[in-house]
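Appendix B, example 12.
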Amino acid sequence: MELDILGLLLYCVPAIITGGIAFLFFREHVENENNRRNFLIQKDLQKEALPMRLQAYERMSLFLERIKPSKLILRVKPTSSNKEDYESLLIANIEQEFDHNLAQQIYVTDKCWSITSTAKNATIQIIRKATLSDKVDSSDKLREVILSDMLDKRSPSDAALSFIKEEVSEIW
């Protein structure tokens, strides 16, 4: 009886060890195959998403260039001599540009989107601050004040553009 149990153990133990090793190898193989498939899928998605991401960065760059106070003032002419009307027109133009590019936030990083939004808000603040100045009494004077302020300092768009350039260079 003991001989039968011992014989059974002599056959079962190697079979259990072999089965355990086979199980581990197959599990490792399946895991490696899943990782390889996921990598290939990710690679294909990256290949398709990269052009869209680059296009989004291009759109953000274009937006930032268009809202630069110096370029905005040259592009958007005052409709009257009232400084408040011109301020509203400039801000509405910036908001319209921003709304037109809202979907781009899907493709850019949160930090990039935040910096772009901050540049937009800072540009609006520059316009509002210039409008409140005592020197400004007409839309033409508002244009002059904004342009002269921009000669002395960097526009918020420039800082945001620098960040976008850095971020795009990291993609390559």
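Residues 2-66 form the longest helix (65 residues). DSSP finds six helices and no strands in the chain.
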